[in-house]
Every structure is written in C-alpha cells, then in structure tokens.
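Hi C.,

You asked whether I'd gotten around to modeling the 216-residue construct. I have! Everything is below, sequence then structure, no commentary in between.
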Amino acid sequence: MIEFRCSAILFDLDGVLIDSTRSVDRQWRAWAREKSIDEEKVMAIAHGVRTIEVIRAVAPHLDAAAEVRWLEGREAEDQVDVAVMPGAAQLVAAIPDGKWCVVTSGTRHLASARLRLGGLPVPKVLITADDVTNGKPHPEPYLKGAAGLGFKPEECLVIEDAPAGIRSAHAAGMKAIGLASTYPASALSDADVVVEKLAQILVSLKAARMLEISIG
C-alpha cells in the first residue's frame, strides 16, 4: 500500500471532483466548428489548461477575453452529462475544513456553478483562472492554493487528472496523485502514483492534524 502524509489536499475540479469531460468536449468542439478551427487541434490541449491560453494558442487572431466569456458561459449552462465524480463527496467530507481547496483552470463563475450542480461545498479557498497570471502547467495556481490555505507547498498533496496539472503540482514542489478519468494512466506517468477511482484514496487525520493518505 502506498501512503502519503500532508497538511492539505489540493484538488483539481473537472475530471477530479466533477465529471464534466463530455460537456467540455462538446462545447469546445462546437466553438471550434463555429470559428472554423481544427477540432482535434483544440482538443489536444483543451483539458487542464485555462481557456484563455487554449484560445491564444489555436486562434491568436480572436479576442481571447471575449471568447472566454462566451465559451465558459455556454459551459456553465450545459448541465447535460455533468455530475459529481464517484467518491468525490465522501473524500471531501473526510477532510477537515481548512485542509483542502480547489485549484481549477476554469473561471470562478464556471467552477462555482459546477460545484453547486454536483452538490459539493464551495471551499473557502478556490483558485480559478481569474486569480492567476500563469495557468497550469506553471506552478502559480498550486502555489496560490497552498498560500491561501496557509501551508508550505511541500506540505501539500495534489489530486489531478491532466498532465498539465501534474506538471504544475511538481513545479510547485508538491506530490501529485493522478486520476485516470480524462486521460489514460499511461498519459499520467509523471504523477507520483496513479489511481483509477477516487474510492482508492483513503484519508485519515493523524497526530498534529496531519493527513494520512493511503492508496488502496
């Protein structure tokens, strides 16, 4: 059994706590078709990265900020196939308040909408695309998450479903558990450990309020 000890757990949102992969895929493909952009080129980089950075990469001729507002507004309204990930509610409930947060590449509006839709609590610390200058795989998002919780980066553990997020966590000096939901396990090989389901991650509170994470 693999075990970690940490002071806090930082969760990515889409593909980790909320199953939104089909909605994300649907809206990005619709946007690409409307803008006459190669869908596969968009989807190759769309998951785990800020929307504004994807748009800048594939359509530098467009007003990226305006496209973000339009696209993420559509995503927030699209509730078809969007649901809480199996085991997410139980895992979050096992962690004391102030020892977990969400670090997402989506906007605050989109992240809050998806958490509410999934019936999950909106954490006190919610780091979104609106809060950073540099998105994943840059370390800034996870560094801000740790700072918001009041812990050193090396005291934190990240749960991620995307290669860009895993690289962000490691660049921030954190361990990362990869969840093979959006990407196959082979694409998450940089993670410290890869799991197929959140139910494999067991959390308990130990001495000095340290969290012990066991991978079953």
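If it helps when you're writing up: The domain at 2-20+82-215 is CATH 3.40.50.1000 (Rossmann fold).

Thanks,
B.
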